[in-house]
């Protein structure tokens, strides 16, 4: 808030009661439609409106599943909000379409540098040399593990698996399988939790982009990664694993909460869920096991200004307020979100939490899935169906990823044919 207060020093000196004061209206759309997150947004908006008498922010929260259609439709029609929350992973697509405004002039005028935000987010915020968004919040993944399970099988609860060989060994030790094949506990499965083959591939030293910026899905490291996934997925029997996982749920019935799974890859918000639904669970958090290639996966939400906005200056002031140290630190403390402002995320009071400190450390090695204009959702359209085919035993890892590469190249070509 300090930057905002500096910028508004003159404006705040003007009598609020002056009839001559003009008031700009800024609309803000987001996904926080209920609960504590909405309460926080209400408070932030009210505080901003109080501190900025010449601007009134009206906000609208829509549930996550309906929000994207509503926002995309409105933006395409030029009737969207001045400021909106959006997907941090595909900012470039909206910049290329011209539906969001560059922020460079505002940032320069206020002395805002992109280095105030996590380095992992920088490629996502920019398009053709300009900055088009700021990272309201991001996330990061780490390994959650059950300390009681570790102790039960003779593993040191403070000594987590560091590499894939240890991860495989620990998985066997922690897995309980009856003589009839029925599973009662699984140490680790790469398809459960919040991971993705690309994360594992980074951990195995894969580079998803070649020297020319082309996406490569069938590198030797990717193939080795998928083979590792297939091994862990099928090691205890495909039918047995499928039957075991059929009972998995979310919240209180999440398999890690219930003790059905000993280790799972999840993001930073998972810790708050554990404390809510399984407060007595003795758990630890550590970096994801890797083959001499530390990494993690991030995504998150951006905030952007519509190019159609007629109140860009006022919109920027509100956007800056949302990104201020004080507001971002309060948001992190309140919701457990890995906010984009590094100074806020590393505030001393947050770093006292051991889990949070581990997550902050992972942000230093985090990556985003590469954004490819020609195939913006390549991970769902080209890659995941082939990964599934390998996991189901329908294709070898080599064949599956060769087919994924061919599918990707066909998708890219279809895009190029329309240009």
Give a description of the structure.
With 419 residues, the protein is of the alpha+beta class. It has 20 helices and 15 strands.
In short, what is this structure?
This protein has 419 residues and is α+β, with helices and mostly antiparallel strands. It has 20 helices and 15 strands.
List the helices and strands and how they pair.
Layout: H1 2-7, H2 9-13, E1 24-30, H3 35-51, E2 55-61, H4 64-76, E3 83-87, H5 91-97, H6 104-110, H7 122-125, E4 126-127, E5 130-131, E6 134-138, E7 141-146, H8 147-152, H9 164-174, E8 176-177, E9 183-185, H10 197-203, H11 220-234, H12 238-245, E10 263-267, H13 270-277, E11 283-286, E12 296-297, E13 300-305, H14 312-322, H15 325-335, E14 338-339, H16 342-345, H17 348-351, H18 354-363, E15 366-367, H19 378-391, H20 397-417
Parallel strand pairs: 1-2, 1-3, 12-15
Antiparallel strand pairs: 3-13, 4-5, 6-13, 6-14, 7-10, 7-11, 8-9
Task: For the structure shown, list the relevant keywords.
419 residues; alpha+beta; 6-stranded mixed sheet; 20 helices
The rough form would be described as globular
State the end-to-end distance. 44 Å
Rg over CA atoms: 23 Å
Strand order of the largest sheet: 2-1-3-13-6-14
Low-confidence stretches: 1-20
Q: Count the strands?
A: 15
How is the biggest beta sheet arranged? 6 strands, mixed
Strand content: 5-15%
> How many DSSP H or I helices?
20
> What average pLDDT do the residues reach?
93
Helix content: 40-55%
